[in-house]
Amino acid sequence: MASAQILYLDEAAVRAAMPPVQTRIGLAERTMLALIEDAELPPKIGVHPRPPGAFGHAMPAFLRGPATDGSADLLGLKWVVGFAANSGIGLPSIHATVILNDPLTGQPIALLDGAPITADRTAAISGVAIQHWGPRFEGRLAKVAILGAGVQARSHLAVIGHLLPGATISIFDRHPERAEALATQAIATPGIRAAQAASDAPDATAGADVVVTAVSFGPVRQTLLNADLAPDALVIAVDYATSVHHAVAREAGLFLVDEPGQFLANRSAGLFDDYPEPHSTIGLAIRNGVPRPVAGRVLVTHLGVGLADLVFADAIVRNAISAGLGVRLPR
Fold it and tell me: What integer pLDDT is reported at residue 84 of this predicted model?
């Protein structure tokens, strides 16, 4: 894939070259399995710009491929910044860029807008959790709760419709109009039978088979309690411990994380206060055939690993090259 030029894919080109939903779930599972032994990635390296709550994270990653000469390896970096106050001035809160490098020479080969990759790879990892540890529905249709109605929540709709056809969704967001808008979008998503806005988080999660927490990070954390959840719910936390109380993790029949180094680093930083050690990682649980427990909740917490962005970016770049998408930039 090395070239004298760098392929630039803006948001529209990334979306046009994004693989279909089932392929995305497959790429996410490949990433989780690769984290067992084929990948190298440190915990996120962070800086803290002046605006309150702002952050910048560098997420380098390396994946050893099957070719002995290293030509099938993946090497690159995701750079993501978050400015919570941007919503008040009409700008996205999150900006992300993914860089792919040639694994044999180190030359940069592609530069991609990372926002759609971040959204779709996150939802695809949630899809992996649903495929492997979703509740037993016993002939009935699934009830899903989504907390938060932002980009991450929207990205989950296609995955839910694909994996849980006929599902009904209850959505809570602290801005009711956003929950209503997401419910309208959900109803228009193939596979989703019905959707509605909920009055509060417990109203949304009551009796839900699958709960996805995707609220904005903030100072108030761990608000979702065991009493708010069905006894055998699958809880998928993509907002760290912003929503899910540590007691949910402690009492879960199965508690999984995507990458233990990321989890432990964030727990040391105070983002997972009083959380227990996870039972396993998503990848190890898949490889070892760990089933859904006979009784009890399953909590899957995925913090977002840069390797997933590289795996997705590689597939997107290949699709873009085949379709003639993107702009060639000189080195």
Answer: 79
C-alpha 13/C-alpha 5 separation (Å) is 17
Tell me the HSE value of 5 on the side-chain side, using a 13 A CA sphere.
Answer: 9
Estimate the crossing angle of helix 115-133 against helix 21-34, to 10 degrees.
80
What is the rounded average pLDDT for all residues in the chain?
95
Dig out the tokens for 32 from the structure. 């989780």
Domains (range + CATH), the chain = 5-117+307-330 (3.30.1780.10), 132-305 (3.40.50.720)
The single residue listed with the structure tokens 């090497």 is: 75
Tokens of 191: 């596979």
pLDDT digits (tens, 9 = 90+) for 124-135: 999 999 999 998
257 closest CA partner among 239, 234, 232, 283: 283
How many angstroms separate the CA atoms of 317 and 179, rounded?
Answer: 34
Residue 65 amino acid letter: G
The one-letter amino acid code at 91 reads: L
Nearest to 6, CA basis, from 102, 150, 119, 123: 102
pLDDT, tens digit (0-9, with 9 covering 90-100), for 10-32:
999 999 999 999 999 999 999 99
Higher-pLDDT residue of 85 and 212 is 212
> Does the structure show a pLDDT above 60 at 240?
yes
* pTM higher than the cut 0.85: yes
Residue 85: CB atoms within 10 A of its CB come to 12
- Asked if 123 contacts 152 with a C-beta cutoff of 8 angstroms, the reply is yes
